[in-house]
Amino acid sequence: MITVKKNQETLFNHIASEFEKFGEENYRSPKCRAHWETRKTRGRLEERIVYVAAAPRSLKETGQWADLKTIGMVYRHREADPNSQRQAPEPTSSRVTFFISSLPPKAKQVAKYVHAHWSVENSLHWTLDVTFTEDSSRVRQGSGPEILASLRRVALTLLKRDTSKRKMSIRLKRKVAGWSQQAMEAIILGS
């Protein structure tokens, strides 16, 4: 499963156009299938609708995407749970994301993969931001952002692999490695 972003303009527009056509029929076309999920988490109500359709022949024929079977759209709506005890509820938000997949176009099955995929992605990005304040990085030009992102992921892998100080958070392990040459070597060498 691959998320399709706007920087992949032709593919993004092709998929958006397909789902726009389905939307004109209120997503009731026999070619489009949907799966709805509603969840309460962390003081929020989240609704997620996964729409899937067989990949159009025109996309398959390009040969760019081996085993392409499915195009998809995920609509996510998030709002504060009125029964929540949270002091400052998050603002209401809606988001649409497109993807391609080699899975068959079965909405419920694809929805499970979408949820698992985004759980991993969100966990990784949250850890990188908390540990390395990645979102605050001021490096934005040339290949600098990609190089630093790779180095952060290598460092995160080494910190997660380290078992010498099991009770320490990843963030604290990073600080300890900065304070002590011996601790840094133990983390890098895995000893």
Automatic annotation (TrEMBL):
<feature type="domain" description="Transposase IS4-like">
    <location>
        <begin position="28"/>
        <end position="157"/>
    </location>
</feature>
<dbReference type="GO" id="GO:0003677">
    <property type="term" value="F:DNA binding"/>
</dbReference>
<dbReference type="GO" id="GO:0006313">
    <property type="term" value="P:DNA transposition"/>
</dbReference>
<dbReference type="GO" id="GO:0004803">
    <property type="term" value="F:transposase activity"/>
</dbReference>
<protein>
    <submittedName>
        <fullName>ISAs1 family transposase ISBlma7</fullName>
    </submittedName>
</protein>
<dbReference type="InterPro" id="IPR051698">
    <property type="entry name" value="Transposase_11-like"/>
</dbReference>
<dbReference type="InterPro" id="IPR047647">
    <property type="entry name" value="ISAs1_transpos"/>
</dbReference>
<dbReference type="InterPro" id="IPR002559">
    <property type="entry name" value="Transposase_11"/>
</dbReference>
<dbReference type="Pfam" id="PF01609">
    <property type="entry name" value="DDE_Tnp_1"/>
</dbReference>
